[in-house]
Design brief:
Strand content: 25-35%
Shape: globular
Distance between the termini: 24 Å
Number of domains: 1
CATH architecture: 2-Layer Sandwich
CATH class: Alpha Beta
Mean pLDDT: 92
Largest sheet: 4 strands, mixed
Number of helices: 2
Strand order of the largest sheet: 1-2-3-4
CATH superfamily: Ribosome hibernation promotion factor-like
Order of helices and strands: EHEEEH
Length: 99
Amino acid sequence: MTINIQYVHMLTSEAMNAYVTQKLNKLNKKYDWIINAEVHFEIEHNDDQNGKICKIELSAPGPRLFATSNESTFENAVKKTLKDLEIQLKKRKHTFIKH
């Protein structure tokens, strides 16, 4: 699986790169048919919401899978986004026909 990480209007973080790569590799061991992962980190400067946004798009057989979350920390945003993607991956796995 290829992982592309982008930081929108913010500095890059090696620690976040390692954290996201570790989590996505764990997901890839469970669902080995994932082809590509696009990760975007953003900061939203709004007092009403948490402001740390993580968007992840997965390329897999069939339509692309996408999830996003807005949390108080990037780590929590990654966890929530991956949890949403895992739900979608489970549904996708059940649609595969075994021959």
